[in-house]
Amino acid sequence: MKARVHVMLKDGVLDPQGEAVRHALGALGFDGVEGVRQGKVIELELADIDAETAKAQVGEMCEKLLANTVIESYQVEIG
Amino acid sequence: MKARVHVMLKDGVLDPQGEAVRHALGALGFDGVEGVRQGKVIELELADIDAETAKAQVGEMCEKLLANTVIESYQVEIG
């Protein structure tokens, strides 16, 4: 079973990486870019378990390791 | 208009970050994790343009800046 986790900085937390990308895009002539946020995506290949258990387990992984929940939010997709 | 870009290392390209996460998850007692790939997700806020133009423009951003197409593949979602 596959799971995909998105980890993004929470709204209001400064994202220097995203800002750097925005500036670089502007310098390349892409004028219409009003904001950029950069985060991580983590794709997990899990041993055979049902979707519900997988979702709970991946949520626990996020809390313990994958995300810094003080400043980051995460989103889990299963399947 | 919002756009989301996923940038992942191509299959076959070694992903040391993903491997590090896999080991760390194992050390935390998550046994069922068979593989981990880590990539980037970039969320763009674009000035008002239609979806087709946005998709083409974001594709160009990926080719020029957001992805290293030698070793990375990208996927663009609009909306």
How does this model look, in words?
Two copies of one chain form a homodimer. The first copy, chain A, has 79 residues and is an alpha+beta fold. Chain A has one domain: 2-Layer Sandwich (Mth169, Chain: A), CATH 3.30.1280.10. Chain A is 35% helix and 37% strand. Chain A contains two helices and three strands. The first copy, chain A, is elongated. Chains A and B meet through helix 1, strand 2 and helix 2 of A and helix 1, strand 2 and helix 2 of B. Strand 2 of chain A pairs antiparallel with strand 2 of chain B, so a sheet runs across the interface. Chains A, B: Its EC number is 6.3.5.3. Chains A, B: GO terms for molecular function: ATP binding; phosphoribosylformylglycinamidine synthase activity. Chains A, B: Part of the FGAM synthase complex composed of 1 PurL, 1 PurQ and 2 PurS subunits. Chains A, B: Belongs to the PurS family. Chains A, B: It catalyses: N(2)-formyl-N(1)-(5-phospho-beta-D-ribosyl)glycinamide + L-glutamine + ATP + H2O = 2-formamido-N(1)-(5-O-phospho-beta-D-ribosyl)acetamidine + L-glutamate + ADP + phosphate + H(+).
Helix-strand pattern of chain A: EHEHE
* Helix share bin of chain A: 25-40%
**CATH classification class of chain A:** Alpha Beta
Most extensive interface, chain pair and sizes? A-B, 32 and 32 residues
What oligomeric arrangement do these chains adopt?
Answer: homodimer
How many discrete domains of chain A? 1
The major beta sheet of chain A can be summarized as:
3 strands, antiparallel
Shape type of chain A: elongated
| Strands ordered across the widest β-sheet of chain A | 2-1-3
Q: Helix tally of chain A?
A: 2
- Helix/sheet category of chain A: alpha+beta
